[in-house]
Amino acid sequence: MQVLINGLQHFASVNVKPKLQIVETFIKAYYLPETEYVHWARAHSEYSKSQIMGLINLVATMKGWKRKTRLEVLEKIEAL
Predict the structure, then answer these.
(1) Domain Syndetin C-terminal: where (predicted)?
(2) Among candidates 50, 28, 30, 29, which has minimal Cα distance to 40?
(3) How confident is the model at residue 46 (pLDDT cuts 50, 70, 90)?
(4) Residue 56 contacts by C-beta under 8 Å, 6 or more apart in sequence?
(5) For residue 13, how many other CB atoms are within 10 A of its CB?
């Protein structure tokens, strides 16, 4: 990610680092333990609910979460 940021700075007239920081944070969220997603969603209001729900669905599928776990996390985030 850092290589991409540095490379884009040579082509873009504005500083792209702050904008790519949002992307980097989203990517890093994929690697969180399942118990941290509700807290992460609460702390990162820069993402829409649909973006966060999409992330949770992706993580749940890729990491093989139980259906009940996925639904519980989604319900807690929806209630935020």
Answers:
(1) 2-78
(2) 29
(3) very high
(4) 37, 70, 73, 74, 77
(5) 6
In 10 A of CB 9, how many CB atoms? 14
**Per this entry, what is the length of the chain?**
80
Secondary structure (3-state) at 16: coil
User: Which position has the token pair 């749940």?
Assistant: 60
Rounded to an integer, what distance in angstroms lies between the CA atom of residue 29 and that of residue 37?
8
Tokens of 78: 């929806």
| pTM for this model (two decimals) | 0.82
pLDDT of res. 13: 63
H-state helical runs in 1-80: 2-11, 17-29, 37-43, 49-63, 67-78
Of 20, 26, 28, the C-alpha closest to 3 is 20
